[in-house]
Specification:
By secondary structure, this protein is an alpha/beta fold. It contains 16 helices and 17 strands. α2 runs parallel beside α7, α3 crosses α4 and α11 packs parallel to α16. The longest helix is centred in the C-terminal third of the chain and has 21 residues.
């Protein structure tokens, strides 16, 4: 059973607004057994909307549209759909009451253009929007369904959760779809594919699809299968998931949507330990990751961004002689940064980074992408040099995650 998403709005096409709606809708549709076949972004033009619908209806059973339902003249979706489905606009008294209550409750005078939002296509099933004034519209067409929703993310999500997904689940007979995602760090997808090639061949025979999803330093492995027997599908995927996880155990750090810093925080909290960070080239990235999730205050004490050498010496206590002899990007400097931030904060563990993130500043001895990382405790500090290419943002991202991963593994392996 196939679904398709059409997002409407020039702001999406020129990059003024990022389309986060499609990703969320795709995830929700997949959860009810709908395969998203295509996602299309188009302009606010009636002919373009009609053409996109014509094409989508040839391919898919359910078409979800967002955008173009506001009260202003540039919002043309409702009028276009009224014409497309050969119907007319009629006043929906219940929607009008809701719109009037919406403005009244906020102490804002209602304008005539807002009342016009209660004029809706006669042939559609109206989906009440409890979070705004633009109603959703559900059209049945020869067994297929077209749904139009506002583009405002929280309004769309409300309509999807309360109206669209429950109705679609009843309307369409869909298979059970099951995914499990394994999270790895520090090895490229080509090497991983070679390492599990025999398992992947077995999965194909068993009807399991394996997808490689690379990101900065990480590769997600998503195992997917579908069928009518939920228990059988889950058991089959789970068995292969465990085999792949065992084969790649040295690089696995979690599953699902878990992030590296969450995994480290869980390890720290389980051992009642704390962490601090001292950053140069990563510029606060590690601190932001460690503070990102609720409950992080139980393990993360704080950090120092010591970008300048003067801050490294004055705040973290890095010796001037160390900087003079070895430079800021060196094993000796990152070791002293770890010891300094542990002294400052009293944390059980710390990580530090110093590197050449570019695009300038590299040398023959220390080219762009050279990063030194230190991690450990007051008793034992480990170091690692990385060479991370020339892309500044990737260097920063991978260096930060690498530092957290190194400490995580050191704790689990009993090295610190």
């Amino acid at each position: 059973m196939q679904a398709e998403i059409i997002t409407i709005g020039d702001e999406l096409l020129i990059g003024q607004t990022i389309d986060t709606n499609s990703a969320w809708m795709g995830e929700q549709l997949n959860a009810i057994g709908m395969h998203v076949h295509q996602i299309t972004s188009i302009t606010d033009h009636p002919n373009h909307i009609k053409t996109a619908l014509d094409e989508a209806l040839k391919r898919s059973n359910l078409i979800l549209m967002t955008g173009g339902l506001g009260p202003t003249k540039d919002d043309v979706t409702k009028a276009t759909l009224t014409d497309y489905f050969n119907t007319k606009l009629v006043l929906n008294e219940e929607v009008l009451e809701g719109i009037e209550a919406y403005f009244s409750g906020r102490g804002i005078p209602i304008m005539e253009v807002n009342k016009l939002q209660a004029m809706l296509p006669e042939k559609c099933t109206v989906l009440r929007n409890l979070l705004g004034t633009a109603s959703g519209m559900w059209f049945d067409l020869d067994g297929k369904v077209v749904v139009s929703m506002p583009g405002v993310p929280y309004e769309m999500k409300g309509l999807m959760s309360n109206e669209v997904l429950p109705r679609a689940s009843k309307h369409f007979k869909t298979p059970f779809i099951y995914h499990r995602t394994l999270l790895t760090f520090g090895r490229g997808e080509s090497r991983i594919a070679e390492q599990i090639a025999d398992l992947e061949d077995e999965m194909v025979v068993q009807g399991i699809k394996l997808a490689y999803l690379p990101a900065a330093g990480r590769v997600k492995l998503r195992l997917s299968a579908s069928g009518t027997d939920k228990i059988d599908v889950m058991a089959n995927v789970d068995a292969f998931f465990d085999r792949v996880a065992e084969r790649l155990s040295d690089i696995v750090f979690g599953e699902g949507k878990t992030e590296m810093e969450e995994t480290l925080n869980a390890v720290l909290q389980a051992n009642s330990k704390t962490i601090a960070c001292a950053e140069s080239c990563t510029g606060g990235t590690i601190a932001a990751l460690l503070a990102k999730h609720p409950g992080s205050s139980t393990s993360f004490l704080g950090g120092v961004v010591a970008y300048a050498n003067e801050v490294k010496t004055a705040v973290l206590g890095v010796k001037e002689s160390t900087l003079a002899a070895h430079g800021a990007v060196s094993e000796q400097t990152v070791k002293e940064m770890v010891m300094g931030v542990i002294r400052l904060t009293g944390a059980d563990y710390a990580v530090s980074t110093s590197g050449v993130a570019g695009p300038d500043g590299g040398s023959e001895e220390k080219p762009i992408g050279t990063v030194w990382i230190a991690y450990g405790s007051a008793e034992k500090v480990f170091t690692k040099q990385l060479n991370l290419g020339t892309n500044r943002q990737r260097i920063i991202a991978v260096a930060g995650l690498s530092a957290l991963n190194m400490l995580r593994r050191a704790i689990l392996e009993g090295k610190v």
